[in-house]
Specification:
- The complex is a heterodimer of chains A (about 160) and B (about 575).
- Chain A has about 160 residues and is α+β, with helices and mostly antiparallel strands.
- In chain A, about 30% of the residues lie in helices and about 40% in strands.
- Chain A is built from 4 helices and 9 strands.
- Chain A has helices at about 15-25, 55-70, 100-110, 130-140; strands spanning about 5-10, 35-40, 45-55, 70-80, 85-95, 115, 120-130, 145-150, 155.
- In chain A, the strands form 2 sheets. In chain A, strands 5, 6, 7, 8 and 9 form a 5-stranded antiparallel sheet that branches. A 4-stranded antiparallel sheet of chain A has the order 2-3-1-4, covered by helices on one side.
- Chain A starts with a strand and ends in a 7-residue tail after the last strand.
- In chain B, about 35% of the residues lie in helices and about 15% in strands.
- By secondary structure, chain B is of the alpha/beta class.
- The longest helix of chain B has 15 residues, at about 55-70.
- The radius of gyration of chain B is 24 Å and the shape is globular.
- In chain B, the strands form 4 sheets. A 6-stranded parallel sheet of chain B has the order 3-2-4-5-7-6, sandwiched between helices. In chain B, strands 15-14-16-17-19-18 form a 6-stranded parallel sheet, sandwiched between helices.
- The chains are: A alpha+beta (about 160), B alpha/beta (about 575).
- The interface of A and B includes residues 15, 61 and 70 of A.
Chain lengths: ~160, ~575
């Protein structure tokens, strides 16, 4: 059964490491829904969080093939209930003065924030899990989304567990 | 010892690093961006370099050296076209897990990324076909990178590692200092075998009545032939060896079934399809072995897989018992505990298949058959030669008719199927094994892909016996067009090929030709008596096909037996 999976990958912060990882996904026909990379708690290393879709066998191959890369130190599949996953979206939406109160209402419900207002539009910053971001985007669509930029999901394991 | 304060160039660091790794010979080709490296070789008698005539020849030679010795092969090329000419050889080595360190020059760091003359991003180009790759940005990293490259290439699942050195780095000075131990946090060579999994395998064997071992290249890479023989003897399990596994189990052994797969033996393929327990040892269930996957080994109650690469477990075939680790270590432990399978009547059945359906061909008194040539080469060398092949019909006939007795005696491009591999790889094998007989078996197509390396044989007197099985066509392509594409023959005629005897002689290599059985034996014996390199062309008919054959999409039991039937 094909499901979404979130994989946390600890890598050496080397030139080309993103290319190695993304190349592996492309070459083996694995899908990438989103990928985020950034510094992590240890100097010289980066943490990548990859959201992918596949059945259990594909997931197993992804984990094993990733681990074969020399610059990959650790690969962990983050289970839904055991992780905190968040994405940030910046949504530039058309906002004529008359429509603004409605939009602000939506922003409040989603605990999002307005980070810029222009004469005819505003930029909304939303943070949350995938479903929440998708939901606010859907609600804002009726007003006209001018531009949309999403970071992709980043995630950590809950509690004392750590991908180290 | 050198003065600690001494400053040396990146090129000198490289040469010293290679010598420290025990490199006996580097195969290479110079060019603008490796000038400093070649300059450092001048006046260095310890450093042996062989100038090939094409970079592809250099890397296949390094590959042949590595496969035949188990040591890391090394090749060197310049940036741009030099580096891209290595790509086929890198992929060849990658697919068959051959330890090679590939060194390329690159443009100076200051102009990298500007499309400078002879610039190619070879690290990126080779990412999917190398185990790892380095771009050396600072000479101070070079000693560590050399050490890591050799370690990565020849441990775990082996493979090619690339070191790309920009021209300025090869001339950058550094003070030499002792380097520390290798620290690669993300890399584990060989995982320790999980004994509980091996115990499960041993249990499954005792419950099995129809077990079969599929032994692959991993047995050879792990130097585990003796352990495999002891394991098979102790458990009484028949063994089929894949193309890369040939020689890993002696062909004279009563439990040997021959090669499985598309051109496998009746005994091997039938055994797999009827087995209740499949034990893959260092074989990756390649599609040429399994053929149609959903019809592979339908009777198997359990599939066990011993492999050093965890990613191979379950990749193609569902696996019940996974013994991850170095094959030698896994088998050494298994031998101490394993008992025999209940395989008495199974072995009888299989031995019966071997005698009822041996590999056969319609021999002729008037025409020289290619299979006859291979049988003759096998018999006259007692299966003791190191054999390299190119790709195609002659490769399959070699696999079928040469009786291999020792590991590392068949060097052939199995995974990638690289034409042009057969001849240059023999040069590397001969340099790694100066006292062994090395025979390179080629078709008339593949011989023309790297024929320029005849010059190397001639000037260094490398005594490879070069065989050209000349059937005047691209035989394997013709076979598929004939059998699968309704005999619509398309672009397989090799009219215009050179006179191979004259070609050899033009390079200063002795050339012989045979077109009948008697000429064949005479010419071949003459070749064996010749101290230096010699090329023997055997003219054979173009009609012969390789049988048995399982068509793509068919299961292993749907063999076409051809002339055998």
């Amino acid at each position: 059964m094909i499901k979404k999976h979130t994989i946390s990958v600890l890598v050496n912060d080397q030139p080309g490491v993103l290319q190695r990882v993304s190349g592996l996904f492309g070459r083996r026909g694995f899908n990438i829904d989103s990928i985020t990379v950034g510094n992590c708690e240890e100097a010289g290393l980066s943490r990548m969080v990859i959201v992918t879709a596949g059945d259990d066998r594909t997931l197993e191959q992804i984990e094993k093939q990733l681990f074969k890369l020399i610059d990959v130190l650790k690969v962990n599949h983050l289970k839904d209930h055991a992780m905190v996953a968040r994405e940030l979206a910046l949504i530039k939406v058309k906002a004529e003065p008359l429509k603004r109160p409605e939009i602000v209402g939506i922003v409040d419900v989603f605990r999002a924030s307005i980070v810029d207002i222009g004469s005819a539009d505003m930029i909304i910053q939303a943070v949350g899990d995938l479903d929440k971001i998708n939901a606010i985007i859907d609600l804002l669509r009726v007003y006209g989304i001018v531009e949309l930029s999403r970071t992709g999901t980043t995630a950590l394991m809950r509690g004392n567990a750590a991908v180290k | 010892m050198m003065n600690k304060a001494e400053q040396i160039t990146g090129s000198e660091v490289l040469l010293r690093g290679l010598l420290a790794e025990g490199v006996e010979c580097v195969f290479g080709y110079p060019g603008g961006n490796v000038l400093y490296i070649y300059d450092a070789m001048v006046g260095n008698p310890d450093f042996k370099h062989i100038l090939t005539r094409h970079e592809q020849g250099a890397i296949h030679a390094a590959d042949g050296y590595a496969r035949s010795t188990g040591k890391v092969g090394v090749c060197l090329a310049t940036s741009g076209p030099g580096a891209t000419n290595l790509v086929t050889g890198i992929a060849t080595a990658y697919m068959d897990s051959v330890p090679i360190v590939v060194i390329t020059g690159n443009v100076p760091t200051a102009v990298m990324g500007t499309d400078a003359f002879q610039e190619a991003d070879i690290v990126s180009i080779t990412m999917p076909i190398t185990k790892h790759g380095y771009l050396v940005r600072d000479v101070h990293d070079l000693p560590r990178i050399i050490q890591e490259a050799f370690y990565i290439a020849n441990t775990g699942r082996k493979g090619p590692v690339l070191i790309d050195i920009p021209k300025d780095v090869s001339n950058q000075l550094m003070r030499i200092q002792p380097s520390g131990p290798i620290q690669l946090r993300g890399y584990k060579g060989a995982p320790q075998p999980d004994r509980t999994e091996v115990d499960k395998l041993i249990q499954a064997i005792t419950e099995s009545e129809k077990p079969v071992i599929i032994a692959g290249g991993g047995v050879v890479h792990s130097n585990a032939s003796q352990e495999l023989i002891a394991f098979a003897d102790r458990t009484r399990i028949p063994v089929t060896t894949t193309l890369q596994g040939l020689g890993g189990f002696p062909s004279a052994h009563e439990l040997w079934l021959g090669m499985p797969g598309m051109h496998g033996t009746y005994a091997a393929n039938t055994a797999i399809q009827n087995a209740d327990l499949i034990i893959s040892i260092g074989s990756r269930f390649d599609d040429r072995v399994t053929m149609r996957l959903d019809g592979f080994a339908p009777q198997a109650k359990k599939v066990a897989h011993i492999d050093i690469d965890p990613a191979e477990i379950g990749k193609n075939v569902r696996t019940d018992i996974a013994c991850i680790g170095d094959i030698q270590a896994v088998l050494a432990y298994a031998i101490t505990k394993a008992g025999p399978a209940r395989s008495g009547s199974w072995i009888e059945e299989i031995v019966n298949n071997k005698t009822r359906y041996p590999l056969q061909y319609k021999d002729s008194d008037t025409v020289l058959k290619p299979q006859y040539v291979l049988e003759m080469i096998s018999e006259t060398t007692n299966g003791e030669a190191i054999i390299t092949t190119d790709v195609g019909q002659h490769q399959m006939w070699t696999a079928q008719f040469y009786k291999f007795n020792h590991p590392r005696s068949l060097l052939t491009s199995g995974g990638l199927g690289t034409m042009g591999y057969g001849f240059p790889s023999a040069i590397g094998a001969q340099i790694g094994n100066p006292d062994r007989l090395v025979v390179s078996i080629n078709g008339d197509g593949g011989m023309q892909m790297c024929a320029q390396e005849l010059a190397v044989c001639a000037i260094h007197n490398i005594p490879v016996k070069i065989v050209v099985i000349n059937n005047q066509v691209l035989g394997m392509v013709k076979q598929w067009q004939e059998l699968i594409h309704d005999n619509r023959l398309s672009h397989i005629e090799l009219a215009g090929s050179p006179d191979f005897v004259k070609l050899a002689e033009a390079y200063g290599v002795r050339g012989l030709r045979a077109g009948t059985k008697q000429e064949a034996l005479e010419a071949w014996q003459e070749a064996l008596r010749t101290l230096g390199p010699v090329l023997v062309e055997f003219t054979v008919p173009s009609e012969e096909n390789v049988y048995p054959m399982v068509f793509s999409g068919d299961t292993l039991d749907q063999m076409k037996l051809g002339d055998m039937a």
